[in-house]
Specification:
CATH superfamily of the domain at 69-85 and 96-182: Jelly Rolls
CATH class of the domain at 69-85 and 96-182: Mainly Beta
Structural class: alpha+beta
Largest sheet: 5 strands, antiparallel
CATH topology of the domain at 69-85 and 96-182: Jelly Rolls
Shape: globular
Strand content: 25-35%
Radius of gyration: 22 Å
Bound molecules: 2-acetamido-2-deoxy-beta-D-glucopyranose
């Protein structure tokens, strides 16, 4: 005869053991084969509503945004081309997106965070230093060459720096249809409206002039 306390204990244990099975590492699973996003829809609930299935065609499932090299003629020497739900509506609800990163020699994809996705990537051309920092403030990095792969856990700060002689090309895959990108320098120094200057001088233990100088580089009004 099982006592009530033991019964409750066994129930709790069962729930605890099952818990990991119910966690999801990416976007929620879809409840249909596809849900090509209707980007013009006026409502949105954690994604986009589906375009009527009868108006979906083969072309909805193909994307040619990666065929062209990104233009790296900018201060960072880098160009990011992203295939997320906003530009490739067939990704809606499927929990996946991809990116193309072009880096000029010395080019940097600056420190940034994807709040909704883990990123996996592969070097297609060149030599790249991949680095990320854990929440325990440990920096992990490695120089990768063609064919080598990396992973950056969801939500962690990371960057990609071209350390080779020529240009570099990386393709990345992310487990969200809209991974989001928090580019730390832009977020801190070029938000709209601006973060109060006192917050930045205190956070960085820097004087007003230093903060104004950094802000001006990001096109923000001092
Ligand atoms: C690349 O971008 C630069 C700066 O915006 C521009 O002057 C140049 O024409 C662009 N090159 C191409 C091939 O689009």
């Amino acid at each position: 005869m099982i006592s009530l306390a033991l019964f409750h204990f066994l129930c709790s244990l069962t729930v605890l053991l099952l818990l990991p099975l119910h966690t999801s590492a990416g976007d929620p699973d879809p409840m249909q084969d596809f849900c090509v996003a209707d980007l013009q829809a006026h409502t949105s609930v954690n994604g986009y509503p589906c375009k009527p299935a009868k108006s979906v065609t083969a072309n909805d499932f193909f994307f040619d945004g990666f065929t062209k090299e990104g233009n790296t003629s900018n201060n960072l020497g880098s160009a990011l081309t992203i295939a997320n739900v906003n530009v490739f509506p067939a990704l809606n609800t499927l929990g996946v997106a991809m990116g193309r990163v072009d880096l000029a020699p010395g080019g940097l994809n600056p420190p940034h965070i994807h709040p909704r996705a883990t990123e996996a990537g592969i070097i297609i051309e060149g030599k790249v230093l991949i680095g990320f920092v854990t929440t325990a403030n440990v920096f992990h990095s490695k120089e990768l060459s063609v064919g080598q792969m990396f992973v950056v856990p969801k939500g962690l700060l990371h960057f990609q720096l071209n350390v080779g002689q020529g240009k570099a090309l990386i393709y990345t895959a992310l487990n969200s249809h809209l991974p989001g990108s928090v580019i730390v320098s832009n977020t801190l120094f070029a938000s709209s409206p601006a973060i109060p200057e006192h917050v930045l001088t205190k956070a960085f233990q820097a004087d007003k002039h230093t903060i104004d100088t950094i802000r001006s580089k990001f096109g923000a009004k001092a």
